[in-house]
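Let us practice reading a record.
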Amino acid sequence: MESRVRLLGHPVHQMLVVFPLGMLGAAAAFDVLYRVQHNPQWALISYWLIPAGVIMGLVAAPFGYLDWRKIPSGTRAYSIGLFHLFINVSALVVFAASFLARRADPSAPTMLASALTWIAILGSFVAAWFGGELVDRLGVGVSANASLDAPSSLTTPTIPNQSASRTR
């Protein structure tokens, strides 16, 4: 099942999710650095990465939603996609709560603020695993013409019967 929204032949959702995962994962790592080194600069970096990651998560979400709506209901992929969506939205809410908990002193987050970040990043890992299950195991968002020797997505798509009849 191919993705609904594609750019240069690739699913937009899969292209965008790397940004919130990277930013929010880095925020969690900088929280650890802050706790270990007691350097407020790490906390400030984490503080600003969280809203950037949440915003990028909100940018990526509609494309994932459009792809999920294309999956036939009653299938395993539909259920996993719904769970993936729910966990991701929940993680974004928890990240937002962590950001709000830091507002009083962004350079010295409370243990609660850091704990919320780590709870959210763990949720993000679970959601990413389910996203991988959708793509890698169930083929959601994968081109119908995918193969180890498929032509570049930047070329004009070929009709499957024509590509099968080609000889080398």
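A brief commentary: The CA atoms of residues 98 and 113 lie 5 Å apart.
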